[in-house]
Specification:
The relative contact order is 0.11. β3 and β4 form a beta hairpin. The protein starts with 5 loop residues before the first helix and ends with a helix. The protein is built from 12 helices and 4 strands, in the order ααβααααβαββααααα. It is 67% helix and 3% strand. The chain is mainly α and 305 residues long. Strands 1-2 form a two-stranded antiparallel ribbon. Strands 3-4 form a two-stranded antiparallel ribbon.
Length: 305
């Protein structure tokens, strides 16, 4: 756990704590899923804040195991690339977006159900009927971090499209971009099919859709500090430059400079290199956005030397 970035670690802990709390409260006759799960917006128990709380609840051990394993496996990489603030914003935003897509899917399902019984029902009358059935609609409840987790999978596929990963039960590794497309195809097929498997496929697709739009926006607005991450590219460039300079052991001044001058120069150069190494390590751990203004300026100045 010490090597897991701060946001990913805390997301794992909060999900696990919520899962244990749900199980313990159920023994006392309290269902946390009814309180914090995402209800259909026409249901009597719907609350806006459920768009956030629902993504920290899970229905069973296998449900939370898959989501937390994927969050750990891919979230660690994405957070190290983006930094904690951007990663958390992306995760929560995509989770909320997934919830909104699930609400839209449930509304369409509600409309089709009512119109199949009475085709003459108008759109405005649909809300009146929903108000009358608000207690029954409480059964439509969504829980799980899958929407946000699928958005993390998408981010990994977009940032590292050619990275090869092993996926059970495939015997050979496949590129991340094909892995993501494969999952999109499965979720789309499952969402269109009336399988009745109680899985929020539209929430999964919704998380990926919001993630895709967000990453595309960041890629098209690099001056805002977004995209694949200016710090990530900047770090790669700096790393190459600094590696080329490590060969210089001793600087010799032209014009008969003293040995003490050379020692002073090299001592200062080593101190500067140590400072740069410290900043680069900070980027590796927390992302470029974690740097102070002075540290960013120090990197920029060094890259121009």
């Amino acid at each position: 756990m010490r090597n897991i970035p701060i946001v990913t670690k805390n997301l794992l802990l909060v999900n696990i704590i919520a899962f244990v709390a749900t199980w313990m409260l159920q023994l006392r006759g309290i269902d946390l899923n009814d309180i914090c799960g995402l209800h259909f917006f026409m249901a009597s128990d719907f609350q806006v804040w459920q768009l956030v709380t629902y993504m920290f609840l899970h229905s069973g051990f296998m449900h939370i195991l898959f989501n937390m394993f994927a969050l750990w496996m891919f979230g660690v990489v994405i957070e190290n690339v983006w930094g904690p603030k951007k990663f958390l914003f992306y995760y929560i935003s995509c989770g909320v977006g997934a919830g909104l897509m699930q609400e839209l899917a449930q509304f369409c399902s509600f409309y089709l159900t009512i119109s199949s019984q009475d085709p003459s029902i108008s759109f405005s009358e649909l809300f009146i009927i929903g108000q009358q059935l608000s207690m029954q609609l409480n059964g439509w409840t969504t829980i799980g971090a899958s929407g946000a987790v699928y958005a993390i999978l998408l981010a990994f596929g977009m940032i590292f499209p050619n990275e090869r990963i092993f996926i059970f039960p495939l015997p050979v590794p496949i590129k991340a971009k094909w892995f993501v497309m494969f999952y999109v195809a499965i979720e789309l097929f499952s969402a269109l099919g009336s399988s009745g498997d109680n899985v929020a496929h539209m929430a999964h697709l919704g998380g990926m859709l919001f993630g895709f739009l967000m990453i595309r926006y960041w890629n098209n607005h690099p001056t805002a500090g977004y995209g694949r991450n200016r710090g990530y590219k900047f770090f790669d460039t700096l790393k190459e430059n600094f590696e080329r300079r490590k060969g210089a052991k001793m600087h010799v001044h032209e014009g008969g400079a003293t040995r003490q001058d050379d020692w002073s120069y090299n001592r200062q150069k080593n101190q500067n290199q140590e400072e740069i190494d410290r900043i680069l390590d900070k980027i590796r751990r927390n992302g470029y956005d974690s740097l102070t203004k002075e540290e960013k300026q120090r990197l920029f100045d060094s890259s121009q030397e």
